[in-house]
Amino acid sequence: MSILQDLIINKNGVEQALSKTVNMRGLQFLDMTVSAPSITPSYLTNPGLDGQIESGSAVYGARTVSVNFLFKGKDLHDFELGCRAIHAFLFSREAFYIRSTLMPAMRYKVRAKPYETTRLSLTDMTFTVEFDLPSGFREAFQTTQEADFSNDAAAWPIGMNIPLDQPLFYTFKTNSFSVYNASEIVINPLKHHLLDIILTCTGTPTITNKTTGDVFKLNKKMAASDTLLLNGCYPFLNGNRCGRDTNHGVITLAEGWNDFVLTGCENPVISFNTRFLYL
């Protein structure tokens, strides 16, 4: 038995279900499939040596999201108008987000590719749209600062790697704490993954992820009114770039639990904002 689904689209920050989009009446979302991950290894070939030598980590490539649609027009005029509306809807200059009501907590940033249709009658057709997924990852619909991590939170269904036996927190007021990364990969700002860390404290702070060995140090004393932001790879103190006053360290998050310690400062309040990534 098929499961009735809907497609949720987010364009320019405006989100709407396909079934409730007035100018898309007659267009029905059937189902969605995502191609398997694409991995590109890095090998070196040396003359006189058998085989190849791995030189660095493999990288994930782009993928494809295939979406099946059914369109039913009221008459030939409505059919032609519907085709135009579908084209305008799918082929925007900017990439946009889609997600299914079957798995609403995961979204995809996509661009549509040209497609062919199968005419069922004078006014009805089916078609499959392949969307490019350049990042290669499914991503959590909400960030760690947007989400509700209570055990019964509907935003985190099965399959999101969220532990149900303990609550998760992403804001801390102690010098030692643990941050959980539910992603299936390492969150690394050097690979353009979202990771914002905001810290207020007094003193000269050093942020250490003991799990990964990453260390970020600010070589400048902070007052209680100061705010340090690590926007991925770029540090800001009170909104101003302060890279020259740091050790140029970058904080990453390993899969699972990451044990952190703050040194050189007192009365800290530190927050982590990231978006989990899935294969």
Instruction: Flag low-confidence runs.
Output: none
The total of helices stands at 1
Largest sheet entry: 10 strands, antiparallel
Using only C-alpha atoms, the radius of gyration works out to: 23 Å
Count the E strands. 22
**Measured distance between first and last alpha carbons:** 27 Å
> How large is the share of residues in beta strands?
35-45%
Question: Which bin fits the share of residues in helices?
Answer: under 10%
Structural class: mainly beta
Choose one word for the global shape.
Answer: globular
Number of domains: 2
Secondary-structure element series? EEEEEEEEHEEEEEEEEEEEEEE
Chain-averaged pLDDT: 91
Describe the secondary structure blueprint for this structure.
Layout: E1 7-11, E2 14-17, E3 27-34, E4 39-40, E5 43-44, E6 53-54, E7 59-60, E8 63-72, H1 76-90, E9 96-100, E10 106-112, E11 117-119, E12 124-133, E13 138-140, E14 171-172, E15 176-181, E16 195-209, E17 214-217, E18 228-231, E19 234-237, E20 240-241, E21 256-274, E22 277-278
Question: What does the model show?
Answer:
This protein folds into two domains: 7-136, Elongation Factor Tu (Ef-tu), domain 3, CATH 2.40.30; 142-278, no CATH class. It contains one helix and 22 strands. It has one helix spanning 76-90; strands at residues 7-11, 14-17, 27-34, 39-40, 43-44, 53-54, 59-60, 63-72, 96-100, 106-112, 117-119, 124-133, 138-140, 171-172, 176-181, 195-209, 214-217, 228-231, 234-237, 240-241, 256-274, 277-278. Strands 1, 2, 3, 8, 9, 10, 11, 12, 13 and 22 form a ten-stranded antiparallel β-sheet that branches. Strands 14, 15, 16, 17, 18, 19, 20 and 21 form an eight-stranded antiparallel β-sheet that branches. Strand 5 and strand 6 form a beta hairpin. It starts with 6 loop residues before the first strand and ends with a strand. Residues 30-131 form the Siphovirus-type tail component RIFT-related domain.
